């Protein structure tokens, strides 16, 4: 079934995204309040920062995150970081391990820029570098990017273009096989990563 170019699956996914986001934001109110206070008292700068990413149909949008780096560092083009990166604050390191820094991504879901499940969006610079090497990467832009993805849970964090291309294979698999059951599977994997603190 199709409604103005949108499949029933896409409509159901959007409704579930919205409901799940509202549920999570209400549930996480205490965490949000505590993190807001801790970020303000442990380092200078804003609590939330935004950065341009490439989304659905190649349209750029501002992604929101809790600031996990020292003030000004988030603006650097080489934002992609790994373990031991000195730009990350002590609190930021904890937030990244448990994915707490990505809680403001739920704002993007409510705005329609993102979905709960979908390929992680990249900066325009890295997007351009990837498609020069692997044009299939453009296929991922036919759906909304996500807070978490099959590539994220199976491959992990990508710190350079080569790793992004390797992770792409998992996201292309998701694109071809996406379903509500697959989304649930990815959600459970993500919860395990959060509780085990296996982020970066």
List keywords for this structure.
about 200 residues; alpha+beta; two-stranded antiparallel ribbon; two-stranded antiparallel sheet; globular
Short description:
The chain has 200 residues and is of the alpha+beta class.
Describe what this molecule looks like in 3D.
49% of the residues lie in helices and 12% in strands. The chain has 200 residues and is an alpha+beta fold. It has one domain (2-196). A two-stranded antiparallel ribbon has the order 1-2. It is globular, with a radius of gyration of 17 Å. It starts with a strand and ends with a helix.
| SS strand fraction | 5-15%
Largest sheet strand order = 1-2
Largest sheet data: 2 strands, antiparallel
Cα gyration radius (Å)? 17 Å
> What is the tally of beta strands?
6
Task: Give the overall shape, derived from the CA principal axes.
Answer: globular
User: Helix and strand succession?
Assistant: EEHHEEHHEHEHHH
Mean pLDDT across the residues is 91
How many structural domains? Answer: 1
- Poorly predicted runs of 5 or more residues: none
What structural class is derived from the secondary structure elements?
Answer: alpha+beta
Name the helicity range.
40-55%
The tally of helices reads: 8
Tell me the distance between the termini: 41 Å
List the helices and strands and how they pair.
Elements: E1 2-3, E2 6-7, H1 8-27, H2 29-42, E3 48-54, E4 60-66, H3 90-97, H4 105-111, E5 115-117, H5 124-133, E6 146-148, H6 150-154, H7 161-177, H8 180-196
Parallel strand pairs: 5-6
Antiparallel strand pairs: 1-2, 3-4
